[in-house]
């Protein structure tokens, strides 16, 4: 069985040649393609969607979507935004790659595509991880291997699902960051978490300010023991991982440090370099 690793790039899972991995590159009628229940992204950024529509209107659909045979037709695996944009533009056909995969791999591919192409909401990512665990029996270690992240990163993302619904909604809406949410998790008790959350929003506290408040509340020694890494740096680390689609580690030494970016092949290195150049 082919090993599936995020760091190798989505192209390793969506081959361009029809002879690779049993996949076929063809053109299908859009009416033949149905939505997937494994789509991890629940909300689309309107601005980015308009940009995609404008790009497809000018250049067409350059990157095929990924589908699998299902119930006499085809079910979308990856490329939900491209399919939606093509529908809005009135396209009748779409270039697709047909890949016959099981449910677990369909969710896996959808998750990887969203991480690499557009940042998932942290809660959407956590819910996709939980689905892999609940429905397909994945361990956190296996998820980490699949998406190319550290096991601790997967664990911390899953912990977001333990937050009160109001705090989850705030994270989903961008009122607080992943760093804020992870810091609030250090507090025991849903009522106390809600209270510190409201204070965070009302005073627009930074992650560092929130961390200092909780450190004083819990006591320096207890807080240091509870959280071994600076949540601000961890949040930055995960943000870079989302952008580059591969494992990233920030190592600090006093006022200096380094960022370690992993890659898994020469083509993956080229992919990362293109992403870095595009951020100029």
Kindly describe this structure.
The chain has two domains: 6-146, Conserved hypothetical protein from pyrococcus furiosus pfu- 392566-001, ParB domain, CATH 3.90.1530; 163-278, no CATH class. It is 52% helix and 14% strand. The protein is built from 13 helices and seven strands. The protein has helices at residues 46-59, 80-88, 103-117, 122-136, 140-147, 151-159, 165-173, 178-184, 190-203, 207-218, 220-226, 231-244, 266-278, and strands at residues 24-29, 33-34, 65-70, 73-78, 93-98, 248-253, 256-261. The strands form two sheets. Strands 1-5-3-4-2 form a five-stranded mixed sheet. Helix 10 crosses helix 11 (220-226). It is globular. The two termini are 39 Å apart.
Characteristics:
280 residues, alpha/beta, five-stranded mixed sheet, two-stranded antiparallel sheet, 7 strands
Please outline what is shown here:
The chain is 52% helix and 14% strand.
CATH topology of the largest domain: Conserved hypothetical protein from pyrococcus furiosus pfu- 392566-001, ParB domain
Q: Can you count the beta strands?
A: 7
Q: Approximately what portion of the residues adopt beta-strand conformation?
A: 5-15%
**Element-by-element helix/strand order:** EEHEEHEHHHHHHHHHHEEH
- For the residues shown, what is the average pLDDT? 81
Radius of gyration (Å): 20 Å
- Terminal-residue CA separation: 39 Å
Oligomer: single chain
């Amino acid at each position: 069985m082919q090993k599936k690793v995020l760091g190798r790039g989505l192209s390793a899972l969506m081959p361009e040649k029809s002879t690779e991995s049993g996949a076929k590159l063809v053109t299908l009628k859009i009416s033949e393609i149905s939505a997937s229940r494994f789509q991890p992204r629940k909300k689309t950024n309107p601005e980015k969607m308009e940009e995609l529509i404008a790009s497809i209107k000018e250049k067409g659909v350059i990157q095929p979507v990924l589908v699998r045979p299902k119930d006499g037709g085809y079910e979308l695996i990856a490329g939900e935004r491209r399919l939606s944009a093509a529908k809005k533009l009135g396209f009748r056909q779409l270039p697709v790659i047909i890949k016959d995969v099981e449910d677990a791999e369909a969710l896996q591919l959808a998750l990887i595509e969203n991480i690499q192409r557009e940042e998932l909401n942290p809660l959407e990512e956590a819910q996709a991880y939980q689905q892999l665990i609940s429905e397909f029996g994945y361990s956190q270690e296996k998820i980490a291997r699949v998406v190319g992240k550290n096991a601790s990163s997967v664990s911390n993302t899953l912990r977001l699902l333990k937050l009160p619904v109001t705090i989850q909604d705030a994270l989903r809406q961008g009122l607080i960051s992943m760093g804020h949410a992870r810091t609030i998790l250090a507090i025991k008790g849903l009522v106390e978490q809600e209270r510190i959350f409201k204070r965070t929003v009302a005073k627009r506290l930074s992650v560092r300010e929130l961390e200092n408040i909780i450190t004083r509340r819990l006591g320096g020694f207890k807080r240091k023991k509870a959280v071994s890494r600076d949540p601000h740096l961890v949040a930055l680390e995960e943000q870079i991982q989302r952008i580059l689609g591969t494992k990233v580690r920030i190592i600090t030494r006093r006022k200096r440090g380094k960022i370690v970016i992993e890659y898994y092949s020469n083509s993956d290195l080229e992919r990362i370099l293109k992403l870095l150049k595009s951020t100029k």
